[in-house]
Automatic annotation (TrEMBL):
Compositionally biased intervals (Basic and acidic residues): 1-13
Gene3D superfamilies: Aldolase class I (3.20.20.70)
Name of the molecule in the record: L-lysine 2,3-aminomutase
Keyword field: 4Fe-4S, Iron, Iron-sulfur, Isomerase, Metal-binding, Pyridoxal phosphate, S-adenosyl-L-methionine
NCBIfam families for this protein: KamA family radical SAM protein
Requisite cofactors: pyridoxal 5'-phosphate; [4Fe-4S] cluster
Native source species: Bythopirellula goksoeyrii
Classification lineage: Bacteria, Pseudomonadati, Planctomycetota, Planctomycetia, Pirellulales
Enzyme class: isomerase
Family: Belongs to the radical SAM superfamily. KamA family.
EC number: 5.4.3.2
Amino acid sequence: MIDTATTERREISKISLPGKGQSTLEQTPRREYQSLQHVRPPVSFESLTHGQFPEEEFWRKLPAYADIDRETFLDYKWQSRNSKTSAGRLKKLIGDFAPAEFFTDLEQGLSKAPMALRISPYIISLIDWEDPYNCPLRIQFVPIGNRLLEDHPNTHLDSLNEQGDSPTPGLTHRYFDKALFLPINTCPVYCRFCTRSYSVGMDTEEVSKVSLRVDYERWKKAFEYIESRPELEDIVISGGDAYNLRADQLEEIGLTLLAIPNVRRIRVATKGLAVMPQKILSDKKWLQALTTVGNHARKNHKDMAIHTHFNHPKEMTWISQQALGVLHERGITVRNQAVMQRGVNDEVDTMIQLVRRLSYINVHPYYVYVCDMVSGIEDLRTSLSTALNIEKHVRGSTAGFNTPTFVCDLPGGGGKRSIHSYEYYNQDTGIAVYTAPSVKAGKLFFYFDPIHSLSEQSRLRWSDPVEGQRMLDEAIRESKTSSSTVDLA
Ligand SMILES: *Cc1c(COP(=O)(O)O)cnc(C)c1O
Ligand code: SF4
């Protein structure tokens, strides 16, 4: 058990740390080393909060969960059954614990949102209901009317144009040797900022979705396509969320892909670890299916990894630590892809804490994305300059292999680019121009800072389509003259 009492325990020599999914290493006793010369300012153990996962029954703080015992809360079936999918049900659960106007606000938010509501008890109990407006977890999953902002004129529902790069429904082949397979369109929770707002989750008042539900015939076409393309070595199994595949479906997809000679690497993408770690600890069948696929990959000298999606340090608790410990013991690599969002993780300290906390539980921070230009989430987006600044602080704060690459998944389908590699960026108009020579040679791609981050004058210009086009034309001209590396021939 690693908790706030760590300091005390460290002074006792040779203790073992027992417990499920936890290290049994003997810890070196903590001593004072006053005679040594130090080159950096001293650091207290107490300040290293990223490694603290107190084993509290934190959910009991919420009156509705006060009587939920540990065994129940750790049961993924209970978590699924008690996930909330409507404002009414959430209100019934939270009641007076949240400010009175909050639920009216929520209903207004939902009527405009591109994503349906679905939120697990695990996340519900980590939300600060006394101040839900500013809670980084509420912001990600629960839309509220009075915080929504008008969309930038260049947002889209399928911002990355995934459908345009799909040879068969639910398979996107954009890059040379890797493809994205979407076998399912549901998730254990729904994130407001989902890249796949065009297909994931239930229809909303705003959006009827493209259906990519579980369909063996559709899957078969994707497998055939992958097999027909010898250059495809790397397949991302995403969705939706692989957590929602049944164990037998996960195993079937994994083993089928690994049996294709050209496939060398598969990744199972799931946000589940961040929003319902209980599944790893209590769904024996699903864990076994994942382990079977992982072992099969390894025996055949191929690779399977999990890509998950933590966005804020608060999402990691002792339950996540135990779940990640189980995966680590089974030799399963887990990488994280975070999405930068305003009010969630757009501060240097939060991002560094996220990276350190992930690393502590053996999750590699792989990417931090600037928020996609999806409709209905303008309030969540940050400017490119905010991301550039945070990246500068994160790099150098920890091990290089635990330092995420900050990327922009280019609107229109140019693929992911390091945010720093723009050909041109004008902070005044908020237009950044990128090229993607190995993905779509000769084409220019644009990312637009959110309108709320711009000066009054630029905001006005964006409200006029003619001015908007003028700013874009100027950015194109500038990007061609300002950089000698752009070859648009
Ligand atoms: C993100 C993505 C991949 C995987 O890209 P990596 O940079 O290797 O993580 C593959 N295909 C599509 C369409 C993607 O969006
Ligand atoms: S878990 Fe992933 S696919 Fe599902 S809603 Fe969230 S971002 Fe979208």
